[in-house]
Amino acid sequence: MIHPQAIVHPEAQIGSDVHIGAFSIIGPDVEIGPNTWIGPHAVIHGPTRVGAENRIHEFCSLGGAPQHLGYKGEPTRLEIGSRNVIREYCTFSRGTAAGGGVTRIGDDNFVMAYCHVAHDCQVGSKTIFANGSSLAGHVHVGDHAVLGGFTLVHQFCRLGAHCMTAVNTVIFKDVPPFLICAGYSAEPHGINLRGLKRRGFSEAAIADLRRAYKVLYKSGLMLEEAVRQLEELAAAQPPVAELVAFIKASDRGIIR
């Protein structure tokens, strides 16, 4: 299932039932898991590991050297999980030695055309990146996050699980889990109500998250005071506890 006009390095490890389209190039130190489909004109550099049942479309460039002035050719890598859809012209870079050495993408993600994931990013599972979304280096994205088209995320930012960004959002600070944000720079616009309902969150959990949002963003309290109030609510509701833990772990500060 490898097209005769594809170029596959003899040291690449290709799993069973892998399709590789015409003019695609698979380099050394690349591992492709079973049942993965790679369209024409894709390039995968190593060291890169791609899991099972992925679909990698035309003109993607995966595992290239990081766009980082401090990178001096160290043996860093890209790891991609299973069942991801990576559409046309996406670029994923390997990590840097200073950033831990690994750029990592989880499972079941849908990454639309022209998206960029820079060095040392850590992307969870079941996320959606709409067309043109870009992550600078060292960004962390939680499970089920949804990035609207042309969302731009500054380096070292974190996006919490189940958050959602609007089209053309520009993010310079951490986005707490469960929130919707929009604008340049990003501002909060409530909780991701529709997404939470789709994923089976209980009415009680959603109600508590709404209360938490009001404490955090509508009460007029300083952040430290708001967090103290949220800790009382967090004791009875795990999603609120997750929100509090995210805020406490933030180095850049949260959008507010």
Give keywords:
lipid a biosynthesis; 10-stranded mixed β-sheet; 9-stranded parallel β-sheet; acyl-[acyl-carrier-protein]-UDP-N-acetylglucosamine O-acyltransferase activity; 17% helix; single chain; Udp N-acetylglucosamine O-acyltransferase, Domain 2; UDP N-Acetylglucosamine Acyltransferase, domain 1; 256 residues; alpha/beta
Describe this structure in words.
The structure is a single chain. With about 260 residues, this protein is an alpha/beta fold. The protein has 2 domains: about 5-140, 3 Solenoid (UDP N-Acetylglucosamine Acyltransferase, domain 1); about 195-250, Udp N-acetylglucosamine O-acyltransferase, C-terminal domain (Udp N-acetylglucosamine O-acyltransferase, Domain 2), CATH 1.20.1180.10. About 15% of the residues lie in helices and about 25% in strands. It contains 4 helices and 27 strands. It has helices spanning about 195-200, 205-215, 225-235, 240-250, and strands at about 5-10, 15, 20, 25, 30, 35-40, 45, 50, 55, 60-65, 75-80, 85, 90-95, 100-105, 110, 115, 120-125, 130, 135, 140, 145, 150-155, 160, 165, 170, 180, 185-190. It has a 10-stranded mixed sheet. A hairpin with a 4-residue loop joins strand 26 (about 180) and strand 27 (about 185-190). Helix 2 runs antiparallel to helix 3 (about 225-235) and helix 3 (about 225-235) runs antiparallel to helix 4. The longest helix has 15 residues, at about 205-215. The chain is elongated and about 65 Å long. The model has no long low-confidence stretch (mean pLDDT about 95). Involved in the biosynthesis of lipid A, a phosphorylated glycolipid that anchors the lipopolysaccharide to the outer membrane of the cell. Keywords: Acyltransferase, Cytoplasm, Lipid A biosynthesis, Lipid biosynthesis, Lipid metabolism, Repeat, Transferase.
